[in-house]
Amino acid sequence: MTDVVRWGILGTGKIARAFANALKDTPNAVLAGVGSRGLESAKTFTDEFGGTAYGSYEALAQAGDIDLVYVGTPHPAHVDNVRLALNAGKGVLCEKPFTMNRSEAEELVQLARSKRLFLMEAMWTRFMPALAEVRRVVDSGEIGKVTQVIADLGFKADFGHEHRVFNPVLGGGALLDLGIYPLSIAVALLGPVASVAAQAEIGPTGVDEQTGFVLRHVNGGMSVCSCSLRARLPSELTIAGEKGHVRMNTMFHRAQTVTVARADGISRTVPTPFLGNGYVHEAIEAQRCWQAGLIESPGMTHEDTLALMGVMDEVRRQIGVHYEADNQQGEKP
């Protein structure tokens, strides 16, 4: 049993349930505990998924039989929740977006580094088989030098304005909820961002309901990304080069096939199935890093997270979206 990693889940919402399901398919993982703001909610969760129920986040963080904590609470709570777990000596996998802004992210990264504790943003797309296949094709030179990525992600959010995705108090908006996916994968494929230009449509609650942004990358090339809470977008990603392109097919963040189309007319589609519900791959990586004594993953480094948060800060500045966390951190979006 020495190889078993004991997980604690902080939060009991939809994303926490998805992660709990993923742990069932993750080798050497066990759900040891679940923390909620009330014991009843935690017990309901553990009745279904197992583990010990804790009636507060503090109690979960202090539990002695937990190695890694998965933070699956609403965006604005991440900074306090991750800080709590790190201060209790736990490694942390925190759901995206990592925090509300770069300033909060810097605080958490500094804390993890000072305590030599593992900390990673739960950007599951970075560890999916589809992205690995895209990178393999690109590295092979089959499509030539890559110069552009086009990616979108969106759906029609048929919710009331009080729902999390429209509520600025809960970090609502298309950018933080959806836009981070195309942004993250564009950076993973083309490298750091040199500049960004953004446009958005702002809804009645003050959050962005549709946002588009063009990135120019430091090492050359550009990416065109969009996200929407108003439209069912194709949600595909294409990376193009001089000799052809590679497409991560429908719902690129969970793509099960990748299509390579060459300029000479030859094309093929490659199966890229994933384990469980897809979150399994990030859980495996977090366990690997934690067991190896690493404080970050080479597939989703601290600098990656800080850079992404910085780009989103700039996008929000350009489109005029402001959150309470910006005031608390002295930001000026």
From TrEMBL:
Superkingdom to which the source organism belongs: Bacteria
Keyword entries, A-Z: Oxidoreductase
Annotated ranges, domain Gfo/Idh/MocA-like oxidoreductase N-terminal: 5-120
Any Pfam family matching the protein: GFO_IDH_MocA_C3
InterPro entries: Gfo/Idh/MocA-like_OxRdtase_N, Gfo/Idh/MocA_domain, GFO_IDH_MocA-like_dom, NAD(P)-bd_dom_sf
UniProt domain GFO/IDH/MocA-like oxidoreductase: residue ranges: 132-246
Family: Belongs to the Gfo/Idh/MocA family.
This protein's name: Gfo/Idh/MocA family oxidoreductase
Source species: Massilia norwichensis
